[in-house]
Please model this.
Amino acid sequence: MACKTTDVAKACNVFIDFKERGSLRKELCVSNPKSFIPQFPLLVNSLGPVVLEEYRKRIRTDAVLKRLNYRGCMVLFRLTSIDPAEYVRAIQEIEMLSTKVNVGDKKTSKARHSFSDVWRENSVFRELIMSSENQEETKWKLEGEYGYRLATNFMPMYAKSIFEYFDAKNVLDPCAGWGDRMAGALSSRCVRRYVGFDPNKNLMNGYKHILRDFGSGVRNENKNMIEFDNGYVIYNMLFEDGDFLLSGSIFDFAFTSPPFFDFEDYGEYMPKYTDWIDEFYKPLFELTHKYLKIGGVFAVYVKDTISGRIEDFVVEKVPKFTSFVVRGRIGFIGGCSKRKRTIYVLKRTL
Ligand SMILES: C[S@@+](CC[C@H](N)C(=O)[O-])C[C@H]1O[C@@H](n2cnc3c(N)ncnc32)[C@H](O)[C@@H]1O
Model:
């Protein structure tokens, strides 16, 4: 069934009727309308600490199948199970559920809703989720019908496999995101140092949680930086603003999944660019190139979406303003969709 606006309107009516039923309720609603909205069921609670810990360990140990030279890819990875990816999802879930993913068609400027928006606005939707047997599965099932899309994560088991495939030791992640690549780095046999950037303040506690689970505490912290005992560092800022912080650093591997223009909207910490290519993508490739050693590899997951086309830029334009050459692509099979996705592998040559 299509949208959404009617559902939201219906839900609003329910809310208004409700308010008018009694003055006490009316007062409560007016002074604190949110008090009637329950917290959505969180994965962290439904999984529980024991399963979460089991998943964390499985990021390191689960088999990831590897096929070399598969249909235009230097290597194709396939997971035997996607469950362990829930580890990072559970830790960062509130942020992921609040992310608006562009489900609309730009031409009709369909409104974008996050799961949390629909949860807040639509009591029928809340009822459906709460009364379902498998609330997690229902969150995914109702995406289309209720006009939201859940943000996906970059599965940490793939990140681990990719780090190990390239024997990465000193890693730069310009857009650290939910922390999947960091969890993959922590689980890998090879990564010794990981430096990540992300402007979203709300992700910082999740990073600390992940590091704590892997046995590292905070060594140093200020409003823009967290340094951990194991030498991992996260800068809470835009990557393009971090040039001065990296001065003197040199990485052998860079790996990221940058925003696909404004395909996902991370709320108050979403950067506002008037020109994504000039203000974001160009500095992203220039700076990554600058801090990679010659011969170092930049693995970058980009995808053309309804928000903009970026793959041609990477393949055709980036080699013109840097010494990066496209060495090929890594394939990996998506979680539930089972579609093959690819990561570009760029090598710094000069
Ligand atoms: C969640 S990841 C993955 C995005 C995914 N590829 C997509 O668009 O569907 C993107 C992360 O990049 C971060 N980000 C956005 N702009 C950034 C910038 N200029 N520098 C560093 N990180 C940035 C966001 O806060 C977000 O956590």
In short: The radius of gyration is 21 Å. The chain has two domains: 5-36+100-146, 49-83+152-348. Confidence is low (pLDDT under 50) at residues 1-32.
